[in-house]
Amino acid sequence: MVSIKVARHAGFCFGVKKAIEIAEEVAQNNSDSTYVLGQLVHNEKVIKDLEGKGIIFVEDINEIPKNSITVLRAHGEPGTTYKILEEKSITKGKNLNDATCPLVTLVHNVAIKLKNNGYEVILYGKKNHPEAVGTSYHLKGKNTFIVEHEDDFHQAIDYIRKSNFAKIAIISQTTMSVLGYRKLIDNINSNFENKFAEIPLALKNLEIKYGFVDTICNPTKQRQSDIDELAQDCDLIIVVGGKNSSNSKELYAKAKEFGIDSYFIQSAEQLQREWLEGKEKIGVTAGASTPDYLINEVVERIRETTDS
Q: Are 179 and 145 in contact (CB under 8 A)?
C-alpha cells in the first residue's frame, strides 16, 4: 500500500491568510467594486475564488477608477504606487486597504535603515517579482543591483570592485532559497578579498563594512526544511503551488536537487498516473499561497489513483 506524507508546514502562511481575510472582508462590506492591483497572492485558484466574491484584479494601476475601494497585495508595493493611488483619491484610512505581509514590510525597513547608515545594499531576489520591485524602490529604484542566482556571484563581485563602496550589505527577498543565499555568500567570500559577515536582523551592529542580513522569512524556511524531511523518507515529491509563486518554485527546485522524482503542479487534475507507478512513499508539500483544499484534493487523487 502506498504511503502519503504531507509536509508539516504545507500551504498558507499567516501573511497570505491575512491578505485574503482583508480582501474578503473589504469586499463583503463594500457594495461597490473592490479592486486589487496585481495578484493578491500567487495562486490562480485563490484569485478565481476571490473573483467570485466580486473582487476585480487589474495589472495596470490606471485601470483602477478614482475613489475606488482598493486592496494592495501581500508582496508589497513601491512608494510610487501609493503616490499614484493618492492622486486618484485612494488613501489609507479612507478607501485603501494594505495587505502587505508584515515580513515583507520588515525587509523594506531593513533596506531603508541600511541605506540610511551608509550601506550600498545588494538584493538577492527575482528582478521582476513584485516583492523585489517594492524593496528596490527603497534603495536605488531600477538601479538597485539584484543577484538572481547564487552562481551569479561574479557579477556581484565585479559590481562591488568597480564601484569601491565604503560599506556594503546584502539582503534577500523573503521567498528565496535558504541554501542558495548561503551559497551566494560563500561563493562571494571564496572569491573576494573582503569577507562578508552576518549582520543580525535587529541591525544593532552597523559598524560591519561588509555584511549580509538573513531576511528570508520563517514560513519560507519552514517549508524548505520540510523538503529535507520528505526527501529522506519518500521516493516521489509532489509540490502544489501557483505558477508565479516564488516560494513554490523554490520548493520544487530543492526537491529536484535531492535527485528524487519531483513534480510541480497547480491542481490535482495535473497529476499523471505514470508518475505514481512503482512508488511506495509519496511526499506532498505546497507553497505558502496554496489553500488547504487544493492540497487535500491532490492527496485524495493520489489515493484514488494508487488504490485502483
A: no
Domain 14-100 fold: Rossmann fold (3.40.50)
Checking if the pLDDT of 50 tops 70, the result is yes
- Give the pTM: 0.93
Average pLDDT, the chain: 96
- Given 51, 86, 87, 131, the catalytic residue: 131
Per-residue confidence band for 308, with pLDDT thresholds at 50, 70 and 90: low
Residue 21 a catalytic site member: no
pLDDT value for 307:
84
User: What secondary structure does DSSP assign to 139-201, as a single string?
Assistant: TTGGG--EE-SGGGHHHHHHHHHHHT-S-EEEEE-TTS-HHHHHHHHHHHHHH-SSPPEEPPT
Which CATH architecture group holds 103-216?
Answer: 3-Layer(aba) Sandwich (3.40)
